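Appendix B. Extra example for self-study. Work through it before the problem class; the solution is given directly after the inputs so you can check yourself.
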Amino acid sequence: MLFNSFQFLIFLPCVVSLFFLLPVRIRPYMLLGASYVFYMCWRPEYAILLVISTLVDFFSGKMMARHSKRARRVKYLVLSLATNLGLLFAFKYYDFFERSLFAITEIFGWGLHFPELNVLLPVGISFYTFQTLSYTIDIFRNKMEPETNIFKFALYVSFFPQLVAGPIERPANLLPQLDCKSRFDYDLAVEGLRLVLWGLFKKVVVADRLAQVVDNVYSAPENFSSIELIIATVAFAFQIYYDFSAYSDIAIGSARIIGIDLMQNFNRPYASQSIKEFWQRWHISLSTWFRDYVYIPLGGNRVTQYRRLVNVFVVFLVSGLWHGASWTFVVWGAIHGLYMVTEILLSPVKEQLLRVKRLSQSKYIVKFCRIFTTFILVNIAWVFFRADSFPDAFEVFKGVVFRCDVLQYANAASCVELIHRVFFSTANMCIIIFMVIFIEVMSLVDRRHGMKRMFIRFPLLIRWSIYVFLILAIMNLGVVKKEAFIYFQF
Amino acid sequence: MQLLKFMIKIIFLFVIVMLMQVLLRCVLFPSNALDGLSDNQESLVKAIDNIRAEKPNIIYLGDSVLNSVSKSDEDRRKLSVMIDDKINDRYDVVYFTHWAFTQREYFPLVKYMHRKGILNADDVIIIPINMRAFSNHWYYNPNWQFDDFREILDNENCFYKMFHRSITIFGKEMDAENQQKDESLMMPVMYDMKQVGVYKDFEGSDYKDYTDEKMKKKIVFHYMQGIDESFPLVMVLDDLCRFLKDNEICAVFYYTPVDYEICEQYVGMDFTKIISDKKAIITETVKRSGFDILDYSRLCTTDMFSWKDNIYPNEHLNEKGRKLLSERLATDMKSSGFVLD
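Solution. Structure tokens for the complete assembly:
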């Protein structure tokens, strides 16, 4: 079920009403049923994968807790890892590796060919796989006790707001909340609904509108000039941010209405002053997952500098592959890995530079330069993330460098032509720019003063005017061509 | 109690939003003014409404062939402008073109224009027939469906006008377009009436360059499907012709030029045979309603096409081709009496 669908607009109020009307002990079962309904609206048969993950991990968790010997515990951990990662591999990566193997062996004239599976990627498999793995790994590490109620555990794996695109929750945070003992809290419900509305606005009005611009240019990058390609790439940076953060907002908001607190997933990532900071602000639930379950087990910061750099690079490579079964995603991850490695290597130089008196005095300029540089670096990597293939990605870079004719836009007519080629119309461009500024200003206000406190201070009329404005904007300026949330494909 | 208060407020907000929407669409912006701000397909509908003000005698529909210009052209006039220049000043010609439009889009458009009084019994409508459109890959291409455009044209009631955007935004199934794309990748590619593979074996990023093998596959993919009278686009064409006949609208059909030379070079005389069979079916359908088709399919030699600008062979013409086609069309329209010299 999509968040931006009538189904969900009916489903959510029904679930919320039932949740608060039913006795506390029934609520988790109702939520579990609702979560499966939510998932099965797409392809009912894929719910079997959810059931398999749930059963195997519940069993593994129980058995690990029952045995104190490490060897036995490892056996059950391996069972959980093999099942979950096996399913993920089969449904997401098998065809990709098969094709890659064929391409590589063809170079040597062997052409090894295995039959392709050609299966549709189950929505959210990467998300719930990671979420359920964190449960078994935490039990293996003795960080938590296993859950005794299989239905509650099943709800942890399938909790509908964050089932298909995160945030990837940790058992220690989510499981205790799934007792569903909360009473209806008016303020929480309003806050949750406000987040849902804000998310829908970001997705339907802004992200989908930006998607049209990006798709137009990236479908045939060879036909566009340097400036047009740069505009499209920056548009994609905002598209993916608004799209994904919108999903997180709706997920967090929906859960908050019923008194469940999900973790924050985004924190103004484009205000980051370094790539490291970017990853502390972008898809926080995934980057902390990789930190806790991949980077730290590899040795974390307690190893030699060389080993640490290798670990960082490996984590980003895997992160790239997690995003999609394509070499462009792997390269995207590798680029971020290289950025991080470079940043670590250059950190002593950076600190020395910052100690230079003049630079330390002009801290706003330094800050701006760092934000700007980080933004550009992130955008360079986004090209590989967005491009359909390597030739397309290289075409974008080639176009940016070699089709750079600024004088071409020296007159008004050329500028209008550019606007029409990229944005379709001047009105569309104005809406996009206005909406992006609006969202960024609101985010800034939220960070400085806290949106919740601000809203409470506003008179009722202003609060309601904002709500009505957002809803009318969705109804009248929303983009008709429906785009699924980008992160659904992962 | 708090839950009840919350529910009442939500219902109250809902009522306010509905009232504001009615106010917005029926009082503040009664026309399609807001749609112009929304997206491409609604802007198109608005463009049709603007046509009404121009009271044209000739309406020219078409796909991207009418708008394309080759990268190397010095004369950058589009085909539509060239034709306009060739036809006598006393005629007001209005062009309505959009990439990948076919008879499926022209038909609701014609009905809409007739309903609105833009297209009357005395007017002439020019409808090109692009034979590449009579294939699965075009007809079912998920990017070329234009459902919203057709729906907006077909639905004119007040409720639809007020809420169609919300209905469309929230009304589609989850992942419908991605599913459509996935399904289209498995669609059969036909060589005449025989399946020779599926869509994904013939399309995609691997086909962005030209080798002999790839060119052959591209031509098979784009042109070599055989059709019969039950092919959906043929049936739409039949309905369109009947509608034009019933309303006594004068229609000029013509076959868009195809690069026979290059296609025959790669797939041999099979190409000529399949295109001839296709033309026979289409011509018969059009003639059934008493219309003729001007056959320009072989008008242009390969040096008049500009398809190398794109990644697959198509009907886009360079300035030489556009000049020839516009000249022939203008001459034929004059000689057939559709326009006066």
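Self-check: Chain B touches chain A through 43 residues (CB under 8 Å). If your reasoning did not lead you there, revisit section 3.
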